[in-house]
Amino acid sequence: MKKLLTLCSFALLSLGASAQAFDPHFGIGVGVGTTGIDIDASLTINKYIGLRGGVDIMPKFKVNKDIDLKTESANKKISQLTTEIGALNQQLAAAGMQQVDLNQYPNGNLPEKLDIEGKLDNTVGHVLIDIHPFATSFRLTVGAYFGKDQIIDVYNEKDGYLSPINAYNLAIINANSASADPGVRQVVNQYNLTMIGGELGDYFITPNPAENGNVKAYAKVKSFRPYVGLGFGRAVPKKRIGCQFDLGVQFWGKPEIYVPTYDKTAGTFQYEKIDGDKAGDDAGKVLKTVSKFSVYPVLNFRLVGRIF
What we know:
The chain has about 300 residues and is α+β, with helices and mostly antiparallel strands. It is about 20% helix and about 40% strand. It contains five helices and 16 strands. The strands form three sheets. It has an eight-stranded antiparallel β-barrel.
């Protein structure tokens, strides 16, 4: 960050020193690179200073995968629950409580896998200052990128697919409460019924009923990302058409991972930021590695055109 402040100071000094040589030119450019497809407008104040502003459009890449559904009990499989839910529903109906409706699933059986989709959404805007210290095509660039802080979403493919699982989990929670209906509690104890979700160290990951049968996890970075880099080429070429090359980094902070969890002690659902020290050995190592990537590399090639 000290280097960034030094470059910004240098940019301001250069701008002041060369203000008397005001010779503006305007251009546009389009490029491709690690930030996606970028489109911007450029203004050169003189042969030493240029300004760029535009947008970097990142295609929304999607990845599909299925994951296994599990109960809290390591000895019980999801496939065992379908018949046991039938007995539970009889007691839920007698108590006037919401039943677990499995009719939306094939053959009315609780699914053992969940189809999920992951999506990258990292379209950003940028404002950059190009500094040509030797009045040549070589330049230093400082500025910032800005956009959404939530860049990765992971969610179930079918809308509302987890509504029966929400109803089931709520029935288990109610059965373990002090005011539980005796008949419901008897069935839960008889079949050793436990919530459906996943243990991740100190976290119990499970869908939040407030999401209406859906579940998601997401990754966040800073929405405002200072930038420093170097490159070759002018944003407004001396001829009608030219090219530019950029190499630098965005300072987007440590990525944060949020997942839906249930706090068994407090009895609450929430989205929690996962702490690598509490996520277990394997997941913790992965999260600690991911958190080290506090900068995003920028490598772009652009074609630029001079308007005047």
